[in-house]
Structures are given as structure tokens and as C-alpha cells.
Amino acid sequence: MTTTSGHPARSGPADPPPAADPQDTGESDAVSAQDAADVCDQAQDLAENGHLKRAAKLYRRAVAADPHPRVLARALLGLAVVEDQRGDLPASREAARGAVATGDPRYAPRAAYHLGLSLEQEGEHVEAEGVWRRLADLGDPSYAAVAHYGLARSAEDRGDPGAAEEHWEAALRLPRGSDPIGRLHAATVVEAARDLAGRLLGRGLPGAASAAVERGLSVADDPGLRLLRAAAHLEHAIADVGAIVDPGEGERDAPAPDAGTSASAVELLAGLLALRGEPDGAERVWRAGLGDGDPETAHEVRRRLRRGFAAPEEEGAGPWWEPYLEEAAATATAPALAGELFAVITRMHALLALPVVEGESRADALRAAMEQALRTPSGLVWGADVHADFRSRLREAMGGEDVLPEGWPDL
Questions:
Q1: Mind listing the pLDDT tens digit for each residue in 288-298?
Q2: Cα angle 245, 247, 251; round to 5
Q3: pLDDT digits 0-9 by tens, 184-241
Q4: For residue 146, which of 83, 191, 100 has the smallest C-alpha distance?
Q5: Please, what sign has the CA dihedral across residues 192, 193, 198, 202?
Q6: CB–CB of 341/328 below 8 Å?
Q7: Distance between CA atoms of residues 91 and 37, nearest Å
Q8: How crowded is residue 262: how many other Cβ atoms within 10 Å of its Cβ?
Q9: DSSP conformational letter for 378
Q10: At the N or C end, where does the chain have fewer CB atoms within 10 A?
């Protein structure tokens, strides 16, 4: 949005004098129509240097002079922007409406753009839609995309998909042939493409979202659009591998894929669902694969689920912790499990390190510290299994005799 009105640069001395308010120099409050443009220049300088109250005063004097419509439109737009920056929204909108009413081909579209965004931000969608329609009627091609983008949002808000589609199409339309595209037009196309693609992905239409993304990328290489394109590809990938894991009714009679293909599809689909933020869906996919009716497929799925485990696969029962690793891999909760383990190790280390640091030599104190350290994992879901594993190993070492009391080490 243009923050100040008027010409972006003016000729003058290398070190121009500070902008001054005529009132500060003793001049009359009255401004002639011929001087209104110069007053707007002074107001613009004041606004650019942060003197908003004084700038607003000068813009009002220029408006009161009833100057040429072009100067009047400029003064009203400048006043609208300054009042907005001062936080006086009613005054800002009143000035913007006045600037739009002039119909000036240069300043009226800018004022309409400013007013429409301000109304939208305050939830005044009905009036905002009227402003967007007026902006579209002003005939400035550089603002046509802005107007249609605003109308597309309005149609979406009121649940009119037909009108929304028409305005989305107009907002994303590019100049014909080799005609150049303006900066505002290009920025609007990119923003509208991001907005539309996000909405389409939310509706489960990745193909249409991809098409919207490509139209935006044809104007500028935007990171947000690239991310949306990746998200659309993700949805397509989920659909493709999902059709392998769970074929539709019309495909159930087709030859089943080999075990390697099925297991690869399970692993990929579970990973993609976890990436999309659906750990429960990922878990269901893994569980279904592990319970596949084809033993070879189920074995291949389990091998892939355990692929990252440090311990090599062995025949028979594995270490006590492997079921927890499998659960963490299937439910995408490995970071949480690792956090638990590190917390327990840190606690046990602290309990055992303190007597060493303090030089504790009393047997009862050392035994109490060790017992407390042993009980550290007891409150966790896997705590009972680590205790049971030690009991089992000790019983085996004692020739089958269980020498630990019931409930050890907690009781």
C-alpha cells in the first residue's frame, strides 16, 4: 500500500531545509487553490519525517482550498494515510471515501485500495465489497487484479463459490502477449495464488492448487508458492501410495503387488501421513501392514519398521525395549521416548553423582542413593519392564531361583 501521496521525488538543493508548517512561520491558515499542491508537498515531507499531526493539518488546509480535482484527490489520499497511521480510522476512511469519489485516475484507485483493506481488517466486509467493485469500475488496469482479489475473498466469505471462482480467475489473469506487468499487479497475482492454493488444499483439491501455484510462479519465484506446490505434491503422493495400501472397490480383484512393493507403500504412506501431521493415521497404516494376511508382506513391513534400530535382528525374543521402539516408530513418537530416556538418565546420574562429589562413605547413605536411582524409571510405562528384565537375568544367573522380594525395587 502506498504510504504517502504525491510525487516520489522533487528537484531541489542538495541539503533542503526541514519541512515546515506554514503556521510555524506565521502564515495564515487559509490556503489558495493555487498553493494547495505546494501544501501537499509540505505535508508529505512532514509525514515522511514522522510529524503526522502537522501533516494532517496541512492536508486538511489543502482540501479546504477546493483545489483542482487532481490536487484534491491527492490531499484526501494523503490525509487518509496519515490519519490511518495516527490511529484515527473513522477520519481515515472519511478522507479515503472522498478521494474515491473524485474519480481521479491516479489517486482514486489508491484511496479505494487503502479503504478496502482498512474495512476488511475491521470486519466491514459488506462495505469493503462495494469498495472493491468501485475500484474495478475505475478502469485502472494496474488495480484490476487488486479489486478482483478483494471480490474473490468477499465471495468466499459469504459462501458463493461461483462468484469466487470468477473473481479468482480475473485476479490471476496476466497481461496479454508481451505487455509488461506492473509491480502491484505482480505482487497481487503472487499473493492471490498463495491464498487460493491454500484454500484449495484445505478442500482436498491438490490438482487445482498446483495450477494456481504455477500461475503465481510464472510471475515471481516465491518461497511460499514453492512450499504450497510441495504440499500439493505431498497430497498426490499420499493418494498414489494409499491406492496401493488400500485399493478401491474396483481394484480389489486386480493382482496383488509383491511383498516388497506393499511394504514399501506402507512405509512411505505412514511417513507421509506423519509428515502431514497425522500420527494416528500413520500408526493405523503400520498396524495394518504388520497384520497383513500375507506373512511375507507382514515380515517385510516389520523389517522396514525396525530398519533404524541399532540392535541387529535376531531369532527369538529381542531385548525388552524393542516393543517400545516399534511403538515409537509406528506412532512417530520417537522424540518423546528419547526425551523420557534422557530425563531418566540425567536423574539417575544426579542421584549417584551427589554422594561421590560429597565424598559420602556411610554405607546406609550410599545404599539409599542407589535404591533411589534404581526406582527412577518406575513411574514410566516401560519402567516395570526394565525391572522385570533384571529380575529375569538374575534368576537365570542364580540357577532359576528368584531371590528378589515381590515388588522390588519399589517395595
A1: 999 999 999 99
A2: 145
A3: 999 999 999 999 999 999 999 999 999 999 999 999 999 999 999 999 999 999 999 9
A4: 191
A5: positive
A6: no
A7: 21
A8: 21
A9: G
A10: C
